[in-house]
Design a protein that fits this description.
Layout (H helix, E strand, L loop, with lengths): L1 H21 L4 H5 L4 H12 L6 H15 L5 H21 L3 H25 L7 H27 L4
Helix pairs in contact: 1-3, 3-5, 3-7, 4-5, 5-6, 6-7
């Protein structure tokens, strides 16, 4: 029963991140909209690597692609790549100070945004770089409150 509860908590937070990512907001917010799904996915890959991995990230990406009506597999590929990187180095990243984690995740978010930009370029939807760069900065700045909030949820419901 504990495994089912753990998965339900993780899936609930991922669904919350998808909802925050697709809700319509004013233009000033849209320009720097945080990367909610990679933020939450990175946390769970670091905190519960046995529960959140490449397959879960890929499936979440497909759901996100369907919800945003983006090319199918765009976010699935990007989330799978960053999940692989975090799975590979999660022990090293977990031991870093929160500020160092922010810098490391900034690089990981940059890889995510580069993959999205690359796929959009292939599908003939190129655009300016600012809409891809500003969310990285905003997401890095939001890592400490997201980390602390999700850690309290993880500890309260004993997700391992």
């Amino acid at each position: 029963m504990n495994a089912l509860r753990s998965y339900s908590i993780i899936v609930g937070t991922l669904i919350g991140a998808i909802v925050l990512s697709i809700l319509p907001f004013p233009h000033w917010y849209e320009v720097g909209r945080p990367l909610w799904l990679p933020l939450v996915g990175c946390y769970w890959c670091l905190a519960a690597p046995r529960r959140m991995g490449i397959l879960t990230s890929c499936l979440t990406g497909f759901v996100f692609d369907a919800a945003r009506a983006s090319p199918l597999g765009e976010h699935a590929l990007a989330l799978s790549v960053i999940a692989y990187v975090i799975q590979r180095y999660h022990l090293q990243i977990r031991t870093l100070h929160l500020g160092q984690q922010m810098l490391t995740l900034g690089g990981i978010f940059a890889v995510y945004e580069f993959l999205i930009l690359w796929i959009n370029g292939i599908t003939s939807k190129p655009g300016p770089l600012l809409p891809y760069a500003l969310p990285i900065v905003v997401s890095v700045c939001l890592w400490p409150p997201v980390f602390i909030g999700l850690r309290s949820i993880r500890r309260r419901y004993r997700v391992h």
